[in-house]
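Internal ticket #5521
Category: modeling
Description: The requester needs a full-assembly model to guide mutagenesis choices. All entity lines are attached below as received. Residue total reported by intake: 899.
Assigned to: D.W.
Attached entities:
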Amino acid sequence: MKKKLVSILLVSALTASALTGCGGGSGESQQTQTTDSSSGETSDTTGDAAGAESTEGSGEIKEFTAFFATPGTEINDDNEIQQIIAEKTGAKCKETWLTGQSDSEAVGTLIASGEYPDFIEGGSGTLQLYEAGALVALDDYLDNYPNIKALFTEQQWDQLRQDDGKIYWIPQFSCIKNKESVCTHNDEAFWIQTRVLKWADYPEIKTMDQYFDLLEAYNEANPTMEDGTTNIPYTILCEDWRYFCLENAPQFLDGYPNDGSVIVDPDTLKVIDYNTTPTAKRYFQKLNEEYKKGIVDPESFTQTYDEYIAKLSTGRVLGMIDQWWDFAYTAGDAIRQQGLDAQGCNYVPLPITIEEGIQNQWHNSGGVLNVSSGLAITVSCEDVEGALKFVDDLLSQEIHNLRSWGVEGVDYNVLDNGEFSRTPEQVAQAADAAYKASHLCTYSYFPQYSGMSDDGINANKPEGQPNEFYANLQSDVKECFDAYGVQTYVEMIGTTEAPGAWYPMWSYSNTLTTSTPGGTAWNRMGEIKHEYLPKVVMASDFESGWSEYMDAYESCKPQDFLDEMQAELDKRMEEAAKYN
Amino acid sequence: MSNKFKNKSKANITEPKTKISWKEIKQQKVLLIWSAVIVVYGVIFYYLPLAGWLMAFQQYKPKDGLLHSKFIGLAKFEQLFTDITFIRTIRNTLAMGVINLIATFITAIVFAILLNEITSRGGKKVVQTISYLPHFLSWIIVTGILHDALSGSGIINEVLLKLHIIDQSINFFAHPGYFWPIVAFANVWKETGWNAIIYLAAITSIDPSLYEAAAIDGAGRFAKIKYVTLPGIKPTIMILLLMNVGNVLNAGFEIQYLLGNGLVQSVSQTIDIYVLKWGISQSDYSIGTAAGIFKSVVSIVLIVIANQIAKHNGEERLF
């Protein structure tokens, strides 16, 4: 359906923007359209408000709309916690998510239509939204909303200023409140099923070669799961923007953190292209060898994200590179639901580098301020203050607990010492898709805290609560952690301080468009890598495949891109120096 | 058909050009008012949007709008035609367009004729209904089915493996060579039944006495098809062919978008996908519009050429 919509929009997009263009600033046609759509919403609101009034007797409940340019799951309209929050704050928000397209496609289409929801998170299309004049500057409002204001330091707020000196969006995930408390490794890693480690009696796996040797050995000894399903030793997700699972490992293998698009040498402060390093070649050569041996899933390069998640959910896949958030809440929950922990199908991260003795930086402590995108309010929003108040309310500790923990007594219990704890049943319930849709409402793309709650006892999110986290670990993961003498995923992979003021560089490369030579190069490089990296891995003759790839890669003029990244790096260091 | 032509030319000779008088206008007042509505509708919805073509000659910024963006002449077109990716999308679009046109066209005609040969009324109805149902499925469903059927453990590979035709499952979507045939197959599967309806209708309108006469003259089944059915639906075929030629560049968007992946992108991307990728998602609306204009112009040229050829050969034509 969405696809159909996209195509219709595509056909009419230019037409539509032509019409708005004709209006020439008076925006008359636009106005009428907006009223039309909002009148539909208003009737909705009154319906809900009437319901709320009968129970609460309070004022009307405002209903906002939000679009997040990232895949997500819509919750039910009568979601219970959403209703509780609405009663407490006087507002609710209907969230819609990306389906099918990429974020910049969706945002580009929105801009062409000139109609926006109240809230928007534009992903890598955020800068385009700003340039199209679609966003409301927040500077004049921020001081009235203490919770929002307190999310970041002055320096951080300044980092968010655009070239006109104003702030337009609020990064959602960058605020660590009070003390940091992390148990999961919410980032990228080589993941491996616990059953593989257990079979080999929990060996120390530190290099890529050891990792694949282990997968090979295990798969030879155990080609199937208990029910006879054939194992897939290693699969690679590379659909669209998710091809990071294939392409950016070389930076980690060399011991650098996730700058995402380049390596930054911390001593010289120069950018390095990780696509052409010797490590990159070794990594792809290894994949090529493993592909020929049948260890790499032959469907890797043609599978869609859904197919990939379905595969992981069956527990067949022994290992892969991925970001925790990309599989844990879907495939991870499915594995939990099916009780596959009994077979050891859960994934743990390994501290892998290209050679032994390199300090890995798969995990960094401290928050990462992603300046490239965040929650923004659009010019279509008629009640900016109401919208900001809603965001501010969502950040109050009480509402935040509702969002992340749920309802006391139902989703978690409070122990005598004030500590929150969940029974295994409650944990299982929270992983249930139907329950999530009908009961839980995390407003997951609204600003939020990690770290510790104001009460000084509890973490802001259940996954950061050490006791609770450890008590509810899946049996196989617990066994594995015990064997390695660790308590959390983070300890499993090790941690380092966040590298420097420039970090992360991907927050800049994400915003590049073809309007600059560097952006053009960046897009072309992406295009070439999408086509050639799979070819390289599947090549019968790796060397010739690699040199073909390198030729095609050089023709994209990567130096243009690197120059722009270097300029941004210098700029960031300069800005940061002002605060020291 | 030749009769019709004669009539037409006769009409041209005998009827002198009528002069439009006020009296006549008054008489046809209501008709004129209604057609004016249609004209206004056409102007607003088909011609006004063409003002958006201006974008292709501007460095268009949504913030500045159409009126205040900077004019840059043909720079965007230059950029387009020096871009190897775009040239490739033209090739892909044309290739897939032509393959699809030929494949769906022939299968639809053959299917309609075969269906017409079925004497059992019930059987005919059932087959027809079943065959055009896929038309109502959206591409997302069709591509989902295809993706499953053609996957490593899908039904096609299973069957080929069980029959020992292959000994290792084929990854159909990893080979650029398979992509166009897969797209053509999908189009045929989805649209044959639907496209056949119009030919079936044309066949029904053939005078049954022609068949009787042919039978008396000793024509068998194949002779009847060759000498009665095919000539009978020839005008329909020509008109549809002409219209479809204009559509060649609309080789599709959804199916290529949904079935494509990194490995086959050099053969899978069409002009429409190019517009989405390099126009809309990079917010370079100018280049998107330029590509759109190119597509429209080529389509018009194609249709005119096809029409001229038809005219030249004395066949049915559009204008």
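Resolution: model delivered.
Comment from assignee: The mean pLDDT of chain B is 88.
Ticket closed.
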